[in-house]
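FAQ: What does the model actually see?

It sees only this:
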Amino acid sequence: MLHYRLHHDPKSSHQQIAALIRRIGRDPILDVGAAQGLLGQLLRDSGLTIDAVEPHPFWAEQARPLYRQVYAQPIEAAELPEATYRVVVCADVLEHTVDPVAVLRRLRQVATPDALFLVSLPNVAHLAVRLMLLFGYFPRMERGILDRTHLHFYTLDTARALLAEAGLEVVRARPTGVPLDELWRGGEQHPLFRLLMRLQHLALLLAPRLFAFQWVLVARAPHA
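And it is asked to produce this:
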């Protein structure tokens, strides 16, 4: 029943976002599309106030102990307080929404004027997708960049354009790697796994647009 699980790679999207939130130290925080509470788990001991939006009823109940409040509704329908949240997180969620620009504009209404938006989006320009397209394939998968529930696909440039259309300016963009612990379950302690992880981190440093599995973006209103 749990489609998502935590990854231990510090360059994974949730790990990067949790580290950013700890460094920023702002609250209250709104976790949009919280699933079973991955971000809540990572920030359990932070002392920060976090609310969540999660429309899936089973996941919402799993997440409830990890948040101050869980809105078990789609983000488009959730009755959120206006001008409240100083950090808004959209981790692996906007690509699933019908109108992501409208979602971001709604979230700007519930955020404070100086709020930071932490957004992760899959990178359709990843090397693996490019190779599949080269050979005429564009499969829909159970998870990953070509997850069959994705309604939109982004590169770094189109992700920036999405946020700009919603009135947000990207101030930082960082890549994530392929979740190797999904491909090799239980392999974390194997020397080959650790080597592959180091090689992936090097590839992300040298050619991020080619090897990024996702982009983690930090954005804010231009005047903030």
